[in-house]
């Protein structure tokens, strides 16, 4: 069989890559590929540089996707997705990423690439090292997994706070405020039509469910914490992205409550496990455990 390469064409290929990730998902994310909701969320995130989407590379055999080399936000980063029987394409994907996904540093105009390689794939890591890459531990990412308990334990909130979802109370201004403040962008929250539309597009993705986008409502009615949650029915898992708590309401357990409520709702419709690609203490406190670390290997060209 002959493997062929082509560039990504968004309208036609977005669903093909989505199906590829779903088809090869293994319980516990043992496949090591992106979870399909991460692919969905990438395309809706306001930080995405959509002008270079055609730089994403696709490898096929008989018209079926077998590997993908992609960035997440913009050039300068590379993530690799594989059909389990096609990891022999590692070198070819690395070649492609260096020639098509590398970025240029704004500080010194030096060409660079951050290649993300799972720590369970030591052969891939060895290849990165041989090619002149060096591991940058502070940029590595951790995939955590949480088996969803049944029955689900009670979720506790301080007096006066309550849980809701965007299916019950869809207020994009409140969503924007809690995310803006929760990600420490400051107190001066820009409120205009473009900002609010950006938030709507961020969460009304193709397969999103508003009843899984959870908010904790403060006594004054504003959103104090927020958790975006995805459910993937084929793999029966929940995916947490993003989570934010307004600084004025931190250390009250509100972010934890929002995450747990989202997981609880996913469990009620069939999910057996939840994942998050972040190693913050909140997730460890809930009971998430590490599956693998996606190591960042960096190379600079003189």
Can you describe this structure?
With 302 residues, this protein is an alpha+beta fold. It has 2 domains: 3-142 and 293-301, Aminopeptidase (3-Layer(aba) Sandwich), CATH 3.40.630.30; 162-271, Gcn5-related N-acetyltransferase (GNAT) (Aminopeptidase). Helix content is 28%, strand content 28%. It has 8 helices and 14 strands. It has helices at residues 10-23, 36-44, 90-100, 122-130, 172-182, 193-203, 254-268, 281-286, and strands at residues 3-7, 57-61, 64-70, 77-82, 103-104, 111-118, 134-135, 141-147, 162-165, 214-217, 223-232, 237-245, 273-276, 289-301. Strands 1, 2, 3, 4, 5, 6, 7, 8, 9, 10, 11, 12, 13 and 14 form a 14-stranded mixed sheet that branches. Strand 10 (214-217) and strand 11 form a beta hairpin. The radius of gyration is 20 Å and the shape is globular. The two termini are 39 Å apart. The mean pLDDT is 97.
Key terms for this structure?
single chain, 302 residues, alpha+beta, Aminopeptidase, 2 domains, 14-stranded mixed β-sheet, 28% strand, globular
CATH topology of the largest domain: Aminopeptidase
Question: Which CATH architecture of the largest domain would you pick?
Answer: 3-Layer(aba) Sandwich
> Radius of gyration from the CA trace?
20 Å
Structural domain tally: 2
Alpha plus pi helix count: 8
What name goes with the CATH superfamily of the largest domain?
Gcn5-related N-acetyltransferase (GNAT)
**Mean pLDDT score:** 97
**Can you tell me the overall shape?**
globular
Strand fraction:
25-35%
Q: From N to C, what is the helix and strand string?
A: EHHEEEHEEHEEEHHEEEHEHE
Bin the helical content. 25-40%
Terminal Cα span: 39 Å
Indicate the low-confidence ranges by residue numbers. Answer: none
Largest beta sheet, briefly? Answer: 14 strands, mixed
Helix/strand class? alpha+beta
Number of strands: 14
CATH class of the largest domain: Alpha Beta
